[in-house]
Each structure stands twice: as structure tokens, then as C-alpha cells.
Request: fold
Amino acid sequence: MARPKAIVSVINDLSTDQRVHRHCLLLGQKGYDVLLIGRTTSVSVPLDDRGYTMHRMWLPFEKGPLFYASYNIGLFFNLLFRKADLLFSNDLDTLLPNYFVSRLKRTSLIYDSHEFFTEVPELVHRPKVQRVWQKIERSVLPKLKNTLTVNTSIAGLYKNLYGIEMKVLRNVPKALSPEQPKASREELGMPTAKKVIILQGSGINMHRGAEEAVESMQYIQDAVLLILGSGDVISALKNRVKELNLSDRVIFKDRMPYEKMMAHTRLSDLGLSLDKDTNVNYRFSLPNKLFDYIQAGIPVLGSELVEVKRIIQNYGVGEIVRSFEPKELAQQIQEMLHSEKVAEWRANAVKASAELTWEKESEVLGKMIDSLNG
Reply:
């Protein structure tokens, strides 16, 4: 008997989205033959084997209105002419083709909102474009039965707007195996004689504290800052490091496979999660890196965002930023690196990591998938 087919769609190039990867694996465990559709870009890297099929659409544009138009048209026809028993849409920029095809073909649809999309910084300062996305969301989202989002605050915003109850599925990682051997700092090219402060992520963009973290390194002598990942401000950060002669204190590493990234994180001494309250989307965000730091068992210095503060304080895994002024930030970082509480923070992170796992969190999505076949 043929397995049911699920098509999962995203707008990225499929390289680093761990949330979507975990969803695809869960669908496979639930008996689905999974196809993940994204797009290729000029900087896309080859994809490794993940246990499900992947397809990158080639598009004639990579940004701007023509990119979104070509992506939506391409996705629509990909979905229309492929057999599927379940469509899985990730974020508002993939929803319209999924919704139309689900209605045309009477196919089940799951929608996952990874953020409060219409308030992302890229839209806040472009009100005409923002209104287009708001209209799409307002027209489609209240009609959907199976919806997810990343935390209770964003679920509350959607409830206030549309009166809908979105299920919460946080971006917690899979549990690290205790038997998994640790690489050494030497093997990973990390400093061996200094403390390591890590700031990681695939969205190291404006207003996420990376600039202040770099500036603070002027006042920190006995540690290095490892910026691991990609984002809009990386090139500006590298230029600033040169201007300040901080090349011996700030290290950059490009985005890498999740397991290798986590190998670096486990060997670090402090994790930074410094997103600022500059817009509604950031205000209620719950960054992946926060859970990665906890899973790695390292203390966290996080900004005073609602969801971030709740996790740090509830689990006792670190401190909340007192000030983003570089000199004061440096002082707090140094205090934490040498604090008597380091052992307590680490122990609490280990305890929290046993609870904050994908294996437990995914029950929400598992039940949703099961309900479609009930």
C-alpha cells in the first residue's frame, strides 16, 4: 500500500531551517512520504541526505516584488501538479499557494507561523507592502483549522486579531545524546586559553545585539567572542572589528551544519541572546539560539524580552541584560564569566535541557497530524 504524501513548503533554500527539518522527520515517522520544496539562490550550498525528498525551485529573481511573485507562481504550480494528501505551509509568504491548492484539491493543510510575520522589521517601514501581507493573513488565516506558532505571546496576538486558537510549538532542539563524544577546541579551531562567548544564528541581523556585543569586546581582555552563522550585519561587523583592532578578540565562522554548530556551542562558556524590543515581532520572539545554549549546557545572557526572560528566570540558566551600552555590557559579561554561579547555571541548564526537548515538544504537532487521519 502506497504511503500518503506530504508536501512541505518554505521560502528559504533549505540549508539551515532546523524547525522545518524536524517537522519533515516527524511526518516521515507518521508514515508520510515527504517532499520539502524551497528555492535555490546564488549562494546555496549542496544539500545532504536527510531521509526525505527535497526540491529547490529555480527562480529568475532573488529579492523584491518580482521574487515573491515568481516564488508564489512557481509554488502554486508545483503543488497543483503533484499528488499530496497533506500540505504544510511555513510562514505567511508560502500560505497563499498552499491555501488555494488545498481548496482546489480538497487537501488537508497545516500552517506554521514562525514569527509574527506582518510586524517583521522589513515590513514595518514599508506600510504599503505591509498592508498587502496583512490583507492576505486576514483573508486566509481565520479559515484554517490546523495552525501552529512558536510561543504563547504570538499565539495571543493572533487570538486578539482573529479570534483563533493557534497551537504552540516552540523551537526546542532534539536532545543531545550523553554518549555523543565532544570534539576538542583544538579540533574545531577554537581558542584554548581564553573564555569563549558565543553568538550564533542564521539571522544575525540589525537590532539583535551583535553590534553591541562586538563593541563590548574593547573592554574584555580574557575572552573571545565567537560569532557563528549568517545575517545582514555580518559584513558591517567584520569592518567594525578591523576598525577597532579586535581581530584577536572576535572570531567569525560561517553557518554550518547544526551538529557542528552545536559542537562549538557545547565548548563555549557563555551564550548571548541579545535581540532588542524594537518592533512587535522581536518583542515577543523566542530565539532558537536560547534553547540551543540550554541544550548545550552553557549559561545564557539574554535580553529583557517577554518570552526570553520567562525561560531564563524560570529555569535559572543565566541573567537578563542590564544595559546595551558596550562598557556596561562588557562588565556584565565579565561578571558572568567569573561568577560563583557558573556551576549553578550550568547544572540548571542541564536539568532544563531534559525538559526542553523536541521529543516532548513535538507531541503537539504529532497529535495534529494524527487528527487529520482520524
